């Protein structure tokens, strides 16, 4: 690609992934797969609520609670949901199902697909050791590929990257 | 004619780019791929993709609601 035939190394990008809801899972995986497709070496560091995005079986949910910006197209309008509705059991699950439906209809990839494409395109994935201990996970719970590491591993990557994102 | 056609119609960001990248890996240097997409964002995105990767955007056109891109692999 652009770097071929020269001494220059590929550009690098790192992303700290801290959120594991259905909506917030998208930006890191979209950017990681796209950057990899554009020839960058990409590292993702999964910590706190981002860590479960590496679990073999995903069942991602989202909540309209505390998110007044979340308005879904319904019956020709854009409808938000009052915070109190989100406290009713089943409402978050319904909102998640609605979002999944909408995404399928609009040709948006699933997180499972994007994650698979990220692994396939050589994106390096680091699972935060401390979070693994904190929430009682082992690498056996995770997909093939992630390695364990801590803050120093991330900083080492970040100091060599042109782009460092915290999502 | 392009060496390969990628039908990315109905797919949303970033899938048209990811499918195009996959196809580029299967053609040799100098080879071309044709990408068909309906995502309006893909027009700017294919320009950016080519600018960064060094591949050549030979053609970018619209027929109805379908965007057509022809990319030549340079690297």
Can you lay out the helices and strands and say which pair or pack?
The complex is a heterodimer of chains A (167) and B (75).
Chain A: E1 12-17, H1 26-37, E2 41-46, E3 72-74, E4 77-79, H2 83-86, H3 91-105, H4 111-120, E5 124-128, H5 129-134, E6 147-149, H6 151-158, E7 163-166
Parallel strand pairs in A: 1-2, 1-7, 2-5, 5-6
Antiparallel strand pairs in A: 3-4
Helix pairs in contact in A: 1-4
Chain B: E1 4-8, H1 15-26, E2 32-37, H2 42-53, E3 56-63, E4 66-72
Parallel strand pairs in B: 1-2
Antiparallel strand pairs in B: 2-4, 3-4
Task: Outline the biggest β-sheet of chain B.
Answer: 4 strands, mixed
Task: Evaluate the radius of gyration of chain A.
Answer: 18 Å
Helix percent of chain B reads: 25-40%
Beta-strand content of chain A: 15-25%
Coarse morphology of chain B: globular
Supply the CATH architecture of chain B. Answer: 2-Layer Sandwich
User: What oligomeric assembly is this protein in?
Assistant: heterodimer
Q: Regarding CATH, which class of chain B?
A: Alpha Beta
Please name the CATH topology of chain A: Hypothetical Protein Ychn, Chain: A
Low-confidence stretches of chain B: none
The level-1 CATH class of chain A? Alpha Beta
Strand order of the largest sheet of chain A: 6-5-2-1-7
DSSP helix count of chain B?
A: 2
The termini of chain A sit apart by 28 Å
Low-confidence stretches of chain A: none
Radius of gyration of CA atoms of chain B, rounded to a whole number: 11 Å
CATH topology of chain B: Translation Initiation Factor IF3
